[in-house]
Every structure is written in C-alpha cells, then in structure tokens.
Amino acid sequence: MKALVCHSYGTSENLVLENVNDLAPDKGQVLVEVFAASLNFPDTLQIQGKYQFQPPMPFTPGSEVGGIVRALGPGVSEFQVGDRVMATPSIGGMAEQVVVATSGVRKIPDNMDFKTAAGFAMVYTTSYHALKQRANIKPGETLLVLGASGGVGMAAVELGKMMGARVIAAASSDEKLDFVRQADPDELLNYGDGELKEKVKALTDDKGADVIYDPVGGNLFDQATRCINWNGRILVVGFTSGRIPEYKANLALLKGASMVGVFLGRFRKEEPVEYEKNFAELLEFYRQGKLKPIITQTFAMEEYVAAFNVFSERRVMGKVVLQIRQE
Ligand SMILES: NC(=O)c1ccc[n+]([C@@H]2O[C@H](COP(=O)([O-])OP(=O)(O)OC[C@H]3O[C@@H](n4cnc5c(N)ncnc54)[C@H](OP(=O)(O)O)[C@@H]3O)[C@@H](O)[C@H]2O)c1
C-alpha cells in the first residue's frame, strides 16, 4: 500500500510517498481502508519534531481518517467488515490503510461522506469540550473566538452559536472572515493590524467578552486578558502564533477572571464517560443538521506538500483533507 512517510524531521518536502507493507490488525484493532485523511496543525509540528508527542522514526503522520473497515483483529465484535467509519489513530492516517484500536473508531451517519468524517473528530470534540466542560458557557454570554477560520476555531464558532452565545468571530483577514460568515457569527472582527483589545471593547459596551477561545497565543492572548468581562474565562487551546504567553495575575484579580486549560487527550483519559457522551452528542447534532462541517481544501495524496503548506503559510479556512481514494 502507499503511505506518506517521515524519515527525517523537516518541512513537508522531506516526506516521502512510498510503497510499504500491507497492515494486519492486532487484538482489539480494526484495519481501515482510508478514503480521506485530514490535516491538523499538530501534524505540521510533528513532522518537524516539535510536537509534545513524537513517534519513533520512521512514521506516517495523520491522526484522523474516514474510510471502511476491511478486517477485524482478534476479539473485535463491535464492528463488521464493510462498516463506514471515522477513526482517530494517533499516527499513520496518511496512508491507504491504517490499523486503529476500536476505542478510536466510530460508525458514521449515512449522510456523512468520508472527507467530512476525516475532519470531524478533532475539531468538534476539542471545541465542544472547551465550551461545555471548561468554560461552562451560558446562553447569552459573549464568546470571542480567535483564529476563527481555522479548524478548531470554526468549530468553536458553530458550537458557540448552537449553545446560545453571542459570538464574535475574529481572524487576521477579511477573506477569512468572509469564510467564517458561513457559521453565522453575530460579529466579525479583523485583527490583521495587530489590534484586538479596543475592537472587542467596542463590540461589548466596554465590558469585554465573557469567554475567549484562544488557539493562537502570543500577542493576541496578551490583549485578550485585557478585554475580558468580569467572571470571564480565557480558554488556552493552542499556540499557533509560536509564542506561549504568560498570564498576569493582577489581571485575573481585577477581572475576577480565570485562565482555563483545554487538553482533549487528557480529558479523554481522565473522563472517558464524559468524552464519549460529548462525542455521541456531536454526532447526533450532525445527524440533525445542526452542524455543517466545511471542507474547503482537498488535495490528492500526491499533493501533500501543497496541503501542508496551507498550514505553514497561515492559509487555513475550515478543514484541509487529503483524498486518498475516491468514494
Ligand atoms: N488543546 C487541545 O486539546 C487541542 C486540540 C486540537 C488542536 N489544538 C491546537 O489548536 C491550535 C489550532 O489547531 P488547528 O488544527 O485548528 O489549526 P489551524 O486550522 O491552522 O488554525 C489555526 C489558526 O491560528 C491562526 N494563526 C495565528 N498565527 C498563526 C501562525 N503564525 N501560523 C498559523 N496559524 C496562525 C490562524 O488564524 P488567523 O490567521 O486568522 O490568525 C489559523 O486559522 C493548534 O495549536 C493545535 O495544536 C489543541
């Protein structure tokens, strides 16, 4: 089978598309024939050796796929050969086959295609956990989403609206904000000139936002801590700007505000029942048509360099997917 393989750390140009041995599922695993594999920001860090979890070399990147179960490992009874699924292997997704523990595999609704399945799990489960368990967001509260056109950001806008918040979607360009419009935010804010604080205050009667969803960090985080409402919560999701910021304790005191960490992997480990409940709810929202994931950038497997460049060149809008096989 064909797989994208990382033999040495560097940019996506270092990856090699090559023929490797077919896989066989072990105990408690299934073999998935991959139709689509999504890219996430952490994939770009992992191939450079800069992520918190680094697999041994050589490895195939890719932690989310949509495809069909083709073989069952010993002891697997909850799936059948032929099931259409979304799967979250920790690595190995950017290949024609991947083996995944059954805990990371879910059957998909009949109305969900494989590209959508590949791009669903990471962004929605992260943003739902952030808003529901970490922020405990209430209807009527103001939610500011930074990096709103990106993967987790777009999901946060959609979910925030669904949960009854007044959503301010913020991004670095008008083109990105035009894209975010599809998730129906209440306000759009362009921080492309580096200014966030005064613009948020102008949109919130000088009070600031109740909940701030921050996958970016750096300068935007610094300003966000200064335009947060009394009792506000700033959700630390990621640091795509490249700088891990520091929270000034006096600002927490003055605003009665909290900085709240969001870590999906740890949540899943520590609170598996809540995690599964969230996931089931998200799939039900999809079935009911309440969530409309948008895959904007689809690339053939051979075009992997262009797909990774969307992230390194800060051009993400929605989800970026490699089409491994036509449906
Ligand atoms: N905590 C968790 O459990 C968890 C789970 C999933 C993902 N994450 C993290 O969340 C972050 C976002 O992931 P994602 O897959 O949604 O990424 P993404 O689609 O690339 O979106 C990231 C956004 O960050 C903004 N950004 C600001 N400075 C940037 C820069 N120098 N380079 C690239 N983007 C920049 C961009 O929006 P603008 O141009 O509009 O600023 C972009 O839309 C990552 O740090 C990821 O590791 C965390």
Key terms:
327 residues; alpha/beta; Quinone Oxidoreductase, Chain A, domain 1; Rossmann fold; 6-stranded parallel β-sheet; 11 helices; 15 strands; 25% strand; globular; binds NADP nicotinamide-adenine-dinucleotide phosphate
Plain-language structure description:
The chain has 327 residues and is of the alpha/beta class. The strands form 3 sheets. Strands 3, 4, 5, 6, 7, 14 and 15 form a 7-stranded mixed sheet that branches. It is built from 11 helices and 15 strands. The longest helix has 16 residues, at 272-287. It folds into 2 domains: 2-120 and 294-323, Quinone Oxidoreductase, Chain A, domain 1 (Alpha-Beta Complex), CATH 3.90.180.10; 123-265, 3-Layer(aba) Sandwich (Rossmann fold), CATH 3.40.50. The radius of gyration is 20 Å and the shape is globular. NADP nicotinamide-adenine-dinucleotide phosphate binds at residues 40-42, 122, 126, 147, 149-153, 171-172, 176, 215-216, 237-242, 262-264, 311, 314, 316.
CATH topology name of the largest domain = Quinone Oxidoreductase, Chain A, domain 1
> Rounded to an integer, what's the Rg over CA atoms?
20 Å
End-to-end separation in angstroms reads 18 Å
Q: So what's the overall shape?
A: globular
Mean of residue pLDDT values = 97
Low-confidence stretches: none
The string of secondary-structure elements, in order, is: EEEHEEEEHHEHEHEHEHEHEHHEHE
Total helical segments: 11
**Strand content bin:** 25-35%
Bound molecules: NADP nicotinamide-adenine-dinucleotide phosphate
Query: Percentage of helical residues?
Result: 25-40%
At the first level of CATH, the class of the largest domain is: Alpha Beta
The CATH homologous superfamily of the largest domain corresponds to: Medium-chain alcohol dehydrogenases, catalytic domain
Could you describe the largest sheet, including whether it forms a barrel?
Answer: 7 strands, mixed
Structural class: alpha/beta
Count of all domains: 2
Give me the count of strands: 15
